[in-house]
Amino acid sequence: MDPTAQFAENLRRLRLAAGMTQERLSEEAQMDAAEISRLERGGRDPQLLTIVRVARGLGVTPSELLSGVE
Description:
CATH architecture: Orthogonal Bundle
Low-confidence stretches: none
Number of strands: 0
Order of helices and strands: HHHHH
CATH superfamily: lambda repressor-like DNA-binding domains
Helix content: 55-70%
CATH topology: 434 Repressor (Amino-terminal Domain)
Oligomer: single chain
Shape: globular
Number of helices: 5
Distance between the termini: 8 Å
CATH class: Mainly Alpha
Structural class: mainly alpha
Mean pLDDT: 96
Number of domains: 1
Largest sheet: none
């Protein structure tokens, strides 16, 4: 699977497992909700700082977000 698509799938799965909306995650990650949406759709390759912010917002490790990315 494409790395961006795998990240997007992981992000959506982890967000839903946490019971969070995209808006809530954007607040927790201190990011714009539109950015979370783009990441979940695979419309953007995330930078390292973005991965760390999203992971913190979800309460997971960055490696969990990158699981299966090769």
